[in-house]
Amino acid sequence: MAKAGSIRGLQVFIGDIRACQNKEQETKRVDKELAKIRAKFGDEKKTLTAYDRKKYVWKLLYIYMLGYDVEFGHKQACDLIPSQKYSEKQVGYMACSILMNEKDEFLRLAINGIHNDLVSRNEAFQSLALTFVGNIAGSEMAEALTPDVLKLLQSGTVRSVVRKKAALCLLRLMRKTAADQQLVSADTFAPIMSQLLEERDLGLLLGAVTLLLGICVRTTSAGYEQCQGKLLRLLERLVYLREVTADYTYYGIASPWLQAKVLRTLQYFPSPEGTAAQRQLHDVLVAIFNSCAETGKSSTVNKTNAQHAILFEAISLILALDCSKDLLASSVTTLGRFLSVKEPNIRYLALENLTRLALVPEVLESITPHQGTILGNLKDPDVSIRRRALDLLFTMCDGGSAVEVVEELVKYLTVADFGMREELVLKICILAEKFAPNVQWYVDVVLALLERAGDFCNDDIWHRVVQLITNNEGSQAYAASQVVEVLGRGASHEALMCMAAYVIGEYGRLIKSQVPTLDQFRLLHERFPTLSSTTKGLLLTAYLKMLLSDPGNEALKSEVTDVFSRYSRQLDPELQQRSAEYLVRTAPCLVECTSPLHQPTMYSWVDTAVLMGSTLTCCDSTGPSVIRLLPLTDLVLIPCPPFHRCWPRIPAQLQPAMCCQCLNGKAGSQHC
């Protein structure tokens, strides 16, 4: 606002604002000034002079800077752009760029004035127009003003500072067009870009390289192959010859911003063709590594940052172009040193680039010696560094280091942030399954995860380990014993209980000599009340399996039957149905014998555990007969004679003629 210093009305207004004692006074003064300006702009009888229009627009800008909404004055700001005075044109461009956005309809009023400034011979006007377009232009301006900007970019009579602005302005116009549209084609613009890369002015070169990078990012480098050689010569000029003026030398480094930009642009081109070009690129990259190695401890932070910016872009270029092994080895060595520095930004970038290098099989072995340092970064206070260290460990892990890495990650799991635990658990599971030396080790890892971070383990994890245990008979007894051991330590996560229900229910019988079935049942059931309905259903099924595997265990039968009886009256329909069905299968059941020798048909109670998987035959010695289980609906409760040791149930159609446990139809039979 240097040009506004001579405007007396503006100075008085600013003084009044500064003299306000509180917010209310300031608001009152601003509202008064806004009302005055609105009245001046709306007075059609009296035409405002250019000076007054400029003064009032400056006041609107100041009010806007104070944080107040300015809802008028846009047209008056646009009217200042066609002015032939620099002071008026300046405030017009500034007000439009601050008060408007690229979709504002008032900008259409300014397009013609901008065009006139671009084609004029006044470099100040051209610079104002290019700066404005480069900051606020939209698709409509891109369509109307691109030819004018291209002419300025190619012009040999315009100063470099204007051409630099034109390059950046063209980049803005390209970004504001649709993805399927091209403002410039490679056939016509590639020669222009090639000429721009031969300029001596570093400011113009920086603008040209930025434009080329934008083109490569938006489309591809196809058609601009001739620019690759120019970029290599430019990089050689900066790294080797250092032909730069003092204005572009930063702590003894020749234009580090341009070097980094050139290295990044080269990543979008294929590997150079020809031995000479490849040797040229190789030598430049080696020089960059040597220069970074010479950076001593006495270097300032600014110089170190600039040098590291160039180095990391060089490493990215090496990865993109698949350069020689010696450059890859140099990259690993340099990044390995950065893992121990105090600066967190450098360590973050080192971990990130090492993660990318770990994807190259040839250099994976050279990263392995840094495994201890990488594990140490898991304890860094910065969460972003911890995440990058985790990604690097996951990427570099192979069959040789998997056991050590997984075990360290499992230990780290107990102290890891809650925001990282889900990702950490997933990565551990993937590594454990991919590089597991045996099923027993995999079972141990998953059990450790379920015990320490069961809340972060989804169902797929325990589903997978159950599948492996089922398909490997040799590991079933081991898995059951390990599950019992984990339960004995007090673990009770939901996912762990689901896995324990299946493993103990199916394979607990294999270890009942070491851990009695009743103890297994009690280990499971003591967590039962706190579990979800789904997990409770799995546990009920496990109880039935345990009872069927040990039918002679009366203590177990008593406790399991009590559980089924209690939960058969639950409101939860799933638990109620399971408990009722399992209760029937644990009680003695009435069977019907249809032997032709028995008249009438005989009934007897037998234990369901005996029926399960068995082939029943009639008690008649003359031969086998058909025996079927009576439906529960055919049974009723009736009193039973006290001298019978039978269940008080018989079919409704036979009551009270026959005792339910008599095989020959005679009361008081020896068979009772």
Overall geometric form: elongated
Q: Taking strands numbered 1, 2, ... along the chain, how are they ordered across the largest sheet?
A: 4-3-5
Strand content: under 5%
| Helical content band | 55-70%
Provide the structure class.
mainly alpha
Radius of gyration equals 42 Å
Quote the average pLDDT: 83
How many DSSP helices? 31
Per DSSP E runs of 2 or more residues, the count of β-strands stands at 7
In the predicted model, the low-confidence regions spanning at least 5 consecutive residues are 589-672
Describe the sheet with the most strands: 3 strands, antiparallel
What gap, in angstroms, lies between the N and C termini?
113 Å
Can you describe what's shown?
With 672 residues, the protein is mainly α. It is built from 31 helices and 7 strands. The strands form 3 sheets. A 3-stranded antiparallel beta sheet has the order 4-3-5. α1 (8-18) runs parallel beside α3. It is elongated and about 110 Å long. Residues 589-672 have low confidence and may be disordered.
